[in-house]
Amino acid sequence: MNNIKRYEIFSRLQKDNPHPTTELKFSSNFELLIAVILSAQATDKSVNLATEKLYAAANTPETILELGEAGLKKYIKTIGLYNSKAKNIINTCRILIDEHNS
Question: Are the C-beta atoms of residues 87 and 67 closer than 8 Å to each other?
Fold first, then answer.
């Protein structure tokens, strides 16, 4: 797909839906990132149930990293593929802290 075609697709999408939304619940860009990672092959409803409890305990890269992989799994075990998602979220938090000043 070339740049012209890509631009046309995004222009049409923006015209049809200028203010897209999501059913995922979040209050920061970081929370949205985590919710999107968790949403792969899961329903928004199941992600929202898990993140409601998770975000009450940890909602920054530092606090999720402090939970560790095992601690994070306790919050997201109701979501499919939670083992690999926990590993990916922990790695994402490390990258955010180390390379992007959190």
Answer: no
Q: What is the DSSP letter of 81?
A: T
Question: pLDDT digit string (tens) for 67-101?
Answer: 999 999 999 999 999 999 999 999 999 999 999 99
CA distances from 93 to 39, 66, 78 (A): 17, 10, 21
- What is the crossing angle of helices 29-39 and 61-76, to 10°? 30
Using an 8 Å Cβ cutoff, are 4 and 34 in contact?
A: no
Q: pTM of the predicted model, to two decimals?
A: 0.84
What is the token pair recorded at 30?
A: 């970081």
The CA distance from 96 to 23, in Å, is 25
Helices 82-100 & 61-76, crossing angle to 10 degrees?
Answer: 180
The single residue listed with the structure tokens 């919710």 is: 35
